[in-house]
Specification:
Pfam families: Aminotran_1_2. It comes from Autumnicola lenta. The chain is 39% helix and 15% strand. The protein is of the alpha/beta class. The strands form three sheets. The chain has a seven-stranded mixed sheet, sandwiched between helices. A four-stranded antiparallel sheet has the order 9-10-13-12. Strand 9 (312-313) and strand 10 (321-325) form a beta hairpin. The radius of gyration is 21 Å and the shape is globular.
Length: 381
């Protein structure tokens, strides 16, 4: 069979292919230290595991669940947004649970984009924004981010372009891969930009609690919901990446549009997963304090590793990565391959996040201090 034309411009995800190479090296006996992937190695909260196990015994646990999620889970999302972001949401109309926020990227794109519509995508940014845009046969229009601009879009410069075909704009703060943050003023300016040009803004917000004392949501911006959606996830904040649980929040009209897609794509999330997720969202701030102390210690070690490699980290980074400039004259891919084959250390090359990522690498904090210390020893030999 001949593949669909929509796949002609979509490549295999970099980590999918690169990790095959890493696994082959491990199978050959190489002691690879993986600092490339943002998959938390720490356990979920024990209360969450207990709630999951308890929910397995519920008489209705193995039946189909509501397309919009259980009322308890949606109420937990409402309370989470109120307690941590100071955002009020209606759990009946302004929230959809997701099977991971990656699912949400696809659903949003399918719900709003027609062939030929344009989508503003950050460069550097999460590669899935581009691949899904191409899958739905829309056109990716990249806006450049740079260290000079604090990795924020220049909205005045964007406004000089022809935006007549632009329907969506992806933003992601705290930003992956750079760790840059956005403040209330930027979000207010972004909402004004969206209203002026009739563009739907989607903020992808899974990193707001990691190494960050002041989590922010774009939904806190006044009178924003008609032009804003926000994706969020339990994967990073609660060490539940494999559970595939996220959420999408926004206006009733936009949520209902996306539900037309979602209700045709699945038949509801497994009840025990929702029960466990609701338990996680009801934990107090002490959970984040303990997690961040661990990440703080790891980050100090990774910064030491970056220094040993003559890499220059960006300042004031949030999230579970360290974004650093490679030494002068090096390429990101060449530097990563050198680390892998010379020191048995795997990191992520910046070019995979877009052309503006060239010259940088991304270190993950998702491994223990012992492994990072071993990486430092290997480099310093």
């Amino acid at each position: 069979m001949v593949q669909a034309k929509r796949l002609d411009e979509v490549k295999e995800y970099y980590f999918s292919s690169k990790l095959r190479e890493v696994r082959a090296l491990e199978a050959a006996g190489k002691p690879i230290i993986n600092l490339g992937i943002g998959s938390p190695d720490l356990p979920p909260p024990p209360q969450v595991i207990s709630k999951l196990n308890e929910a397995l015994m519920d008489p209705g646990a193995h039946q189909y669940q509501p397309y919009k999620g259980t009322a308890d889970f949606r109420n937990a999302i409402r309370d989470f947004y109120k307690n941590h972001y100071h955002v009020s949401l209606d759990p009946e109309t302004e929230i959809i649970p997701l099977m991971g926020s990656k699912e949400g990227i696809t659903h949003i794109s399918m719900a709003f984009l027609n062939k030929g519509d344009q989508v503003l995508i950050p460069n550097p940014g999460y590669p899935t924004y581009s691949s899904v845009t191409k899958l739905v046969e829309a056109e990716a229009v990249y806006y450049n981010l740079s260290a000079k601009g604090n990795w924020l879009p220049d909205l005045e410069e964007l406004a000089k372009k022809d935006l007549s075909k632009v329907k969506l704009m992806w933003v992601n703060y705290p930003h992956m891969p750079t760790g840059a943050s956005a403040n209330d003023k930027f979000f207010a300016d972004l909402v004004a930009f969206a209203k002026k040009w009739q563009i739907l803004i989607i903020n992808d917000n899974p990193y707001s609690f990691i190494l960050n004392d002041h989590p922010e949501s774009i939904l806190k911006t006044e009178d924003c919901k008609d032009v804003v959606l926000e994706l969020n996830s339990l994967s990073k904040s609660f060490n539940m990446a494999g559970w595939r649980i996220g959420m999408l929040c926004g206006s009733e009209k936009n949520i209902n549009t996306i539900l037309k897609v979602k209700t045709n794509m699945d038949s509801g999330m497994f009840y025990p997963l929702q029960a466990g997720a609701a338990e996680a969202l009801r934990l107090d701030k002490k959970w984040f304090t303990v997690q961040n102390e661990i990440y703080k210690q790891r980050k100090e070690k990774v910064l030491e590793l970056a220094e040993a490699l003559n890499c220059t980290p960006e300042k004031d980074q949030q999230g579970m990565f360290v974004w650093a400039k490679v030494p002068e004259g090096e390429t990101s891919e060449g530097f990563v391959d050198h680390l892998l084959h010379t020191h048995d250390i795997f990191t992520a090359p910046g070019f995979i996040f877009g052309s503006q990522g060239e010259g940088y690498i991304r270190f993950s904090l998702c491994t223990n201090e012992e492994n990072i210390s071993e990486a430092i020893k290997r480099v310093k030999k």
